[in-house]
Design brief:
Elements: H1 3-16, H2 29-38, H3 44-54, H4 61-76, H5 82-100, H6 108-112, H7 119-129, H8 139-148, H9 156-166, H10 172-185
Amino acid sequence: MNNDKRREIFRRLQAANPEPTTELAWSTPFELLVAVALSAQSTDVGVNKATARLFPVASTPQGIVDLGLEGVKEVIKTLGLYNNKARNLVAMCELLLRDHDGEVPRTRAGLEALPGVGRKTANVILNTAFGEPTIAVDTHIFRVSNRTHLAPGKNVDQVEQKLLKVVPRDYKRDAHHWLILHGRYTCVARKPRCGSCVIEDLCEYREKTEPA
């Protein structure tokens, strides 16, 4: 795929959705950090239901610590892996209070030092909370990047590095959201909805589906 095609892909995605954002519910960088940390192997809908119970009683690191491990478990027990998530969340909040005065760090190193926070989560926080041009590659973005040939790679790290290289600079900040939403609703895993895809003619996928 050449750069002209890539630019046109993002031009169309932007035209269809000028201000894309996460579907997780949040109002502060800390709430976003919690939501993303809870989202592993869970849907955004499920996470939003859990945080709708959690944030009214604990929306700060001190609030989480005060709620305690068992209290956090009780609130988020509808989520998969909730025991591990609760432990990481409490440990993360203790570290935020100890080393960052309760504030979410604005650096990758600071974020990735937090319990339960890896590169993907750090990328989401840097991008969505702080406006950095990072691209967090999840299963949707990995699939879209490979299927369309936008930025093929054998693993998420390769796809991330390729996207950072080939996405035009003026589209880079929102690229994560456009691609994840495209993968979630149009370029779905089992049978992509090629007939309703705004970039169907630019996509280099060989097994396109017929319109419904």
